[in-house]
């Protein structure tokens, strides 16, 4: 399927087109992000087909995303810089806080803005070619696409500061160990694994997926008594959905698969 930007493509997978594959198509630029591509990401997540219940973001070529396209970086005063950063925030919020869970299929460079994009996804699958870095600190700039909020939630503020202070690069195994990815797979298989996970996620009750995307992160940041009350509200809402009742009934009647090791 075409989008309004040739650097981004959308294809649908599954028997009912329930999984959207969003591909960055700037391989000659290592899928570096410019404003047009960021806005295209925003637009595609705001207008996903109604059949879609999970999504995968993937980078064409040898790299997921090498960050901000510095060749298109223009000089801005402080006010313009704030507005530009807020535009990125709004776009990546459409990934993190949209309508469906998003799995990132990572390989090669996941650097700077590429790591900010990956951290806006809900699950990250890295293959063994993946490396993670935040070179903004050594280039005299600061993250502006939400990285200072999202990345510390994955690895802690001290590890992120180390990456920016020193230019430290994490390889795939170390990145998975510290929390930059949840899955580590052989080189060339991240997309396959991400599509497998997204297909599985798409079978969940939509309200449960929505709660995991929107309620769980908020509960994690609330005081414990507030979080427990929010949990009670969300649990009651989720279990009241007709699909939830049908799934519980199927389990009680022995028609649903049981958890296995």
Q: State the CATH class of the largest domain.
A: Alpha Beta
Lateral arrangement of strands in the main beta sheet = 1-2-3-4-6-9
Number of strands: 9
Distance between the termini: 39 Å
Q: Structurally, how many domains make up the residues? A: 2
Helix/strand order, N-terminal first: EEHEHEEHEEHHEHEHHHH
Strand content: 5-15%
The total of helices stands at: 10
Spans of 5+ residues with little confidence (pLDDT < 50)?
A: none
CATH fold field value of the largest domain: 2-enoyl-CoA Hydratase, Chain A, domain 1
CATH superfamily caption of the largest domain: 2-enoyl-CoA Hydratase, Chain A, domain 1
What overall form do the CA principal axes indicate?
globular
Record keyword descriptors for this entry:
15% strand; 9 strands; alpha/beta; 10 helices; 2 domains; single chain; 2-enoyl-CoA Hydratase, Chain A, domain 1; Lyase 2-enoyl-coa Hydratase, Chain  A, domain 2; globular; six-stranded mixed β-sheet; three-stranded mixed β-sheet; 261 residues
